[in-house]
Design goal:
By secondary structure, the protein is an alpha+beta fold. It has 2 domains: 2-32; 44-161, Barwin-like endoglucanases (Beta Barrel), CATH 2.40.40. Helix content is 31%, strand content 35%. The protein has a 9-stranded mixed β-sheet with strand order 1-9-6-7-5-8-4-3-2. It is globular. The relative contact order is 0.21. Mean pLDDT is 81; it is low at 1-26.
Length: 162
Amino acid sequence: MILYVFDIKYKLYFNTLYIFLDLYFYQLNSDLFYDNESKILFREISTKSSVKSRVLLNIEKFEIGQSYVTAKIINRYQDKITINIQGGKPGIELQKSLFKIDDDATNIPKYAFLFARLLNTDEIFVRKLPVIGFRDWLLIFEDKLVELSVKDAYDELEITLV
């Protein structure tokens, strides 16, 4: 009987401890992300196993236009490629020399996940954009990313195609 009471107290203690640790790590994880959408999308991409291509872009300097932001990067063939980020309906038009994508129409990715770690706050920014098509430059339509680009809040952008 005493062992049973001890066992119940023991389980209650550890259940309380687990709840406390869950709340602590939930709070800790909440502080890692820019917003709730980033948190949800980060978990979504970690469960995907159908990654078709992944590219990490190192952006040295953003150039601000009237309603857009541009940056120049160098692809694996040492060609300069322009990135154009502007607001509007979310989507992305890919540049083929940046990604290893077959010309097969059935293998075209449906979505692109964008990751950026913000410099000042060290938060993770994530967005999921539908792939619209292909261009001679990389064209990204995402309002919040334009805002962060204007503020020069990040210097690397990872794009994962699924």
